[in-house]
Sequence to fold (933 residues):
Amino acid sequence: MKTKLSALLFLMNFMLFAQEFPPIIKYSSSVYGAGNQNWMISQDDKNYLYFANNDGLLEYNGTSWQLYPGPNETIIRSVKVIGNKVYTGSYMNFGYWTRNANGKLKYTSLSDGIKNKILDDEQFWNILKYDQWILFQSLNRIYIYDTKTKKFKIVAPQNGVVKSFSQKNAIYFQTMKEGLFEIESGEAKLVSDHPILKKFTIANVFTTDEGLILQTQLDGIYKLVGNSLTRIVTDIDSELKSDFVYSSQRLKDGSFALGTVSNGVFILTDKGKLRYHLSQRKGLSNNTALSLFEDRDQNLWIGLDNGINCINVQSPVHSFTDDTGALGTVYASAVYNGMLYIGTNQGLFCKPTESNSDFKFISGTKGQVWSLFKYDNTLFCGHDSGTFIVSNDTARPIFSASGSWKFESVPNHPNLLLQGNYFGLSVLEKINNQWVFKNKIHGFDYSSRYFEITKNLEIYVSHEYKGIFRLKPDASFSKTNGFYAYKNPEKGQSASLTTFNNHIYYAYKGGIFKLNPKTRLFEKDSLLSSIFEKDEYTSGKLIVDNSNKIWLFSKNYIHYFSASKLSNQLKQNIIPIPSSLTNSMLGYENITQISKSTYLIGTTDGYYTLNIDDLSFKNYNVLITDITTNKQNETFNNAAIYHEGSFHSNENNITLNYTVPEYNKYINSEYQYLLEGFQNEWSEWSTKATANFKNLPPGKYTFKVRAKYANTILPNIAVYNFEVLKPWYRTNLALFVYFLLAVAIGYFINKAYRNYYQKQKEKLIEENNLLLEIQELENEQRLMKLRNEQLSQDVDNKNRELAVSTMSLNSKNELLAFIKEDLKKTAQNDSSNIKSVISTINKNITEEDSWNVFKEAFDNADKDFLKRIKQMHPALTPNDLRLCAYLRLNLSSKEIAPLFNISVRSVEIKRYRLRKKMDLQHENGLVEYILSV
Fold:
């Protein structure tokens, strides 16, 4: 009993709801940076989206979000783009936003002009347009604003206004307990007071040729024709009576989108058939749809109680996402006998094709499924446990010795199949209309995930870590006599091998190579290899579909090549879906043709289907959204984007943001930019929607940006011209001032040089004159020196003469004195003659005569000495002067004594007395003093 119960629970866990949904893009509040709840949505002519959010007005341009806080930071309940203005309604306020020159929105209140008429605690939940009038609806009244006269008219029903609606040429509103009204000539006119319309709130009103379609919140959909109200039957009538429909929208294709409070969104056809039911369990971020809006590309935007979702309703891509994890990663798929089989890492699942029924787990296949292969009206399953044959919802194992990778038929042997196993190759054989395991091919034991067999029965095996092998089994396919290992091309991560157009291809990071059947060498295929250029390689997986198309996967695209009908060249087709969005398992990508134009591609959490015939893409425009500049280490400032920019020299760090306002989940826009005046070539293609330039030098620049969408370059190029001004010291005025200063400085320098050289000239002349004067003085000095030398020589001569004369006189006197003494001795004999001689001698040795002669000679030799000494010492007597003269001649006392005819002792006495008269100090020498006078 327990075993049966466990099995039942196991099967219940593997019953998966299998409807495929269009792509859903989820934006959480952390992504858009605002409040959780979004009450209303609108779109402008540039494809920008606007959301009435709890935190304010939320703007989205396809690349970045911008939040503008509401008036007084209140919740914005309604938003409507009309012309170039974005009207919003909030708590006790309504008005419009216009775009400034820098691209940012600025709010202007309309309600402030009638503030005294606004009710206390009134909030404005809807905004409608009718001709020149804008209607702002609260739960109490409708304020009608005339855009021409700028005046208001107020419609104030007694029981308030539940909701208001705009359809074609009419404005409707509902009042509880009264029914549905239409505004005509500014007044309320009853349309229907049917009891249902008095009881149930109307979520929305739609017009038809016959009348009105009314979507109620809790009682389904009705048609109102005249006074007749009839129910419209749908597939979800029971849900419409139990689920609270808070919002609804009629789509351009005639279908209806209904947003509920607790059960997500229902999309019905115009006939009331259920197309999609989207809920939190089936892909939405939240089950409460507060607002719905269909944009120009027919995407359905859902303002949720917790986030924003975008549904690409018209996308050729539809996805099945397993949020429970029960299905797992899809590795293989196949359509066989009206059933869709999905092989995953959890096992094999199936469901009928063209139905929304649940996936059913096939018992006995728990574990990793590697491949599904159809041959001979049999479906083979390559599994981690071996090989299974699948029929309807059952699987029968036929080989369990090793895990099985893949299968290939054997040319000219319809009853044989080769299978690649974990430990080599083995053979399956059809016996008595039953496929059974035949044998392993001995002699080759490497894992054979990828292998191909040629017409001459040569087998090529690709091993991710060993490279390519070539081997040929014997006639019985029981063994091989060795194998050949290729050195080129090299082994590679996620490499693979396949047969396309009767040629074997090998792909790895180094390119895609084609086997030359004559040389049995692999040669690089330039066309196929081109998809891996520019670092586009993610996986070498090659897949050939039932229509003989070869599929490849790169970083940003899915490629497929088909044979041309008019030549042997391959025709390339590109699907611009990047690997980052497809969520595929790298190296294990799988794609299966499930109809003529529809393909199923496995992902890590389910799969998605792609209709290649519906692949068509609209042309968009690339727009520059905002431009910011900043000084070094300062905050950014928004610059005007609608006219040429002019920035100061220190505002040369410039950031430009741009966008393609499109909202496709699987396609990323790519951008190239060029800054003329700074760079001459376009940048590399990048999904980054911003360009930053730092420290731009002064000059004029033209920024250009273009975009590529779905691998097609969009027709327009967004252009922005700006100039970085020169610093003030490099402006034309500054240069002119510099010129004037240079001229003035040059003038003054020239003048200074002229003055300098004039002074130098004068100085030189003066110096020359001075030199001449000096030379003349020197000449005079030389003459004077010569004269002085001559005079000195004359003085010396005079002194010599004086000395000679003095010495002669001295000698004469000494001789006469000596003779006199001798005569005196003789005179004692009283000789009269001797006395006469003595008398004569006395006359000849008189001092007066000697002194007069000496004085005359001395005056000639040393003029004015006696006068000077007399003036200095007036008390000197002639004898004193005479002694001074002798001392001047540096005569000794002994030499002076004869001149005075006195003894040496007497001379010393004279000298002593002379010192006294001159008042000389003891330390001063008499002779030295006289010589210094």
Remarks:
- The chain has a mean pLDDT of 88.
- The chain has 14 helices and 65 strands.
